[in-house]
Amino acid sequence: MTRGKQKIDAQRKNAERNQKPKGSQLEARAVGLKVVCPICKVQLANHNQLIDHYGSKHPKEKPPSNS
């Protein structure tokens, strides 16, 4: 058993450790998704994923340029 200052410090550390993380995963996901497919409006992280998306979901269409 701890007493005095040790007990208070231990309680403070446990309270900090058990706090929920700030922000949400949805907010972080929205920040990371920058490219949007103009056909089906799917959000993707980068241009390479957009090219892969076109190859699998829209094989008859040509992927847009990198701009």
Explain how this protein is built.
By secondary structure, the protein is mostly helical. The protein has helices at about 5-20, 25-30, 45-55; strands spanning about 35, 45.
Q: Tags for this entry?
A:
nucleus, 3 helices, single chain, zinc ion binding, cytoplasm, zinc-finger, two-stranded antiparallel ribbon, metal-binding, about 70 residues
The quaternary structure here is single chain
Radius of gyration: 23 Å
Distance between the first and last residues' Cα: 63 Å
Q: Order of strands in the sheet with the most strands?
A: 1-2
Strand content: 5-15%
Summarize the amount of helix as a percent range: 40-55%
Overall outline: rod-shaped
Q: What is the overall number of helices?
A: 3
Ranges with pLDDT <50 over ≥5 residues? none
* Main sheet specs: 2 strands, antiparallel
Element-level helix/strand string: HHEEH
Q: How many strand units?
A: 2
Mean pLDDT: 87
Class inferred from helices and paired strands: mainly alpha
How are the SSEs placed, and which strands pair?
Blueprint: H1 5-18, H2 25-32, E1 35-36, E2 43-44, H3 47-57
Antiparallel strand pairs: 1-2
Brief write-up:
Helix content is 49%, strand content 6%. The chain contains 3 helices and 2 strands.
